[in-house]
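Look over this entry.
=====
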Amino acid sequence: MSIYTPKNIDHAIEIANIISDNARDCVRLHAAFGAHFNNDMAITQNNAYMLKGKPSLNADAMAGVVRRSGLCGYMVITSWDHEHCTYECTRTDEPEGIKHVFTYTMQMANAQGLTRNRNWQQMPMQMLRARCLTLMLRATYPDAVSGIYSPDELADNMDISDDERTQISADSLGEEVRPVSRQPQQRPAPRQESRPPMPQQPNEHNAIESIPPKPFRGAPANKTPTPLDVAKRILEAATSDEPNADGVVEPFAWEDMLDQRECMERVERVSGWIDVQTYITGLWHKMHRKPGNHNEHTLSQVRALVNELGYSNCLLG
């Protein structure tokens, strides 16, 4: 419980007046989504939006709701570029081996009339990721997020200005938008010989994927570990026992070797910081659900590393 957890409706109104310029919407958002954030009004306010009287929750916050519900085995981006995004996920209450795969493409967005909006022109990869993520969450985990929509989904179908729609989408995705030049058009420069476009690397992650956890922000590039390095460090903590009497660290073998092998294989697929969060959720679930897959040392080691990174919301159970 924090100072922003209201004790009653009067207390909620008092907090809303402190943290929001629109206390009424703040209270309504808390009523709609507060239960997903331990009833903390400030955290709810940071993740929820009221658009023309309709409450919404940003895509990553929806993913957090699903992770904390215990229904998610893992969710991970398997392919992503300027034309499509593909997510893969599992449910913990389904037989192992069942995977759900969802792809959202620019062609699908175009068919829905979305690509004429400036947010899709300036942030195509971010919009594809958000749309694929919410599609997957509602289809696979309806018992956790049924009926919840993201601000960008609502904005794309509202009669509002393109500038307002773009800003709403950018805010909900944690992005910045480029201002549109309003200066008169100048005479076009002489046409130059065109060059073939540079080949695009598969799984190109930018913007959201490039933002490291807080402990590494501002550090020199040569001192910042890669997402893969961090994920492997967490896996090592989950599979290393306490030092013995001679100070030698012994490996800790999980009781379910299939679980351990799957985590060791999946770590190699980590390529961005969002993948790290997803990997932590899947690893923790496989550790925590079976007593033989952990001991107090491995749990405390993983918990300490994850808290240090600021990813404690990924820990289930």
The chain has three domains: 1-57, 58-176, 210-314.
